Amino acid sequence: MSSVPDGKKLVRSPSGLRMVPENGAFNSPFSLDEPQWVPDKECPRCMQCDTKFDFIRRKHHCRRCGRCFCDKCCSKKVALPRMCFVDPVRQCAECSLVSQREMEFYDKQLKVLLGGGTFVVTLGTSEKSETMTCRLSNNHRYLFLDGESHFEVELSRISSMQILTDGTSPGGGTSRASGMLLHYKPMGSQDAQQLRMEAADDKKVASLWLAAMHKAAKLLYEARDQ
């Protein structure tokens, strides 16, 4: 399944140009659907400052939440990769802040996840462990684990994720991520499988990868709850 090429197509929506997978089944698990715009007839006033719209004060829709605002309250154009927009799009003040914070994930943490980290991996209740490199697939839909063996975990089939820590970091700071405990359903099965990953030799790289995965999990759960 993960080897199927993910073709892209350019589509135009009322909100702007979007580059989306040709097959909707191959959407990134982090992606969000475009919101339904509040109908013009239902918003005679700005939904932020209550300014009345007229021929001079035009109404604008936030591309992230779909609500209606005046130009002053919806003037920022911010990148919105979670909806696959090609260019930055108009967003209200609240949504633009959320999108800007998410850009840190796309600019930094996503690259860490794609680069991978090395972990000691244990499946289920097995006493056997294997040192494997774990990385996010290019289409963001799978975790690839490679060592003497190879297997994949589809992100959409992860039911729970827990980041494990090793106590406090040097200098008495916050605890550092040292591993991860996943529960997921393998393809073709409705029974949950446990996967335990613990940092191997390069613990700094592994810790950064786990921190990025923690952020990814938040986006993943948010997309599911949409």
From TrEMBL:
Determine if GTP-binding is one of this entry's keywords.
no
Q: Which UniProt keywords apply?
A: Metal-binding, Zinc, Zinc-finger
Q: Which GO terms describe its molecular function?
A: zinc ion binding
* Segments forming domain FYVE-type: 40-95
Q: Which Pfam families does the record associate with it?
A: FYVE, ZFYVE21_C
The protein's name in its UniProt record: FYVE-type domain-containing protein
Q: Which organism is it from?
A: Sphaeramia orbicularis
- Which gene underlies this protein? zfyve21
